[in-house]
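Minutes, project check-in
Item: structure for the 115-residue chain
Input as provided by the requester:
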Amino acid sequence: MNPTTLNALAEPNRLLIIELLREGPLSVGEIAERLHLRQPQASKHLKFLSEAGLVEVRAEANRRIYRLRPEPLMEMDEWLESFRGMWEERFDRLSDYLLYLKKTGSSLKPKEEFK
C-alpha cells in the first residue's frame, strides 16, 4: 500500500474532496463552492490529490474537471483486508467468551481457554 495515499487522505479537506468526487466528476469551482473553500485552496488540495494518484484532471475549455481514480483506494482496501481477518478472529473469540460468561454466570475474569 502506498503511504502517500494515507498521507493525502489524512487532511480533512482532501478527504471531503474524495467524498464529493464519489458522486461524480466536479470542477474546481464546484468543489470549492460545496466545501466553502477559496478556489486557490481547493486547487492546492486537488494538486496534492492528483500527485498522490487519487484524482485525475481533464481540461474542458477554461475549466478543470476532476475525477476520482479508484485504483489507489482499491489498493488501500486490499491492504486493510489483511487486517480484517485478524480482527474478525478476535471478535469471534470475544463473542465466544461473552456467550460463555452468559451461560455460566461467571465474572469477567478471563478463562485460560479464551486467552
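Outcome recorded: The beta strands are 26-27, 55-60, 63-68.
No further action items on this chain.
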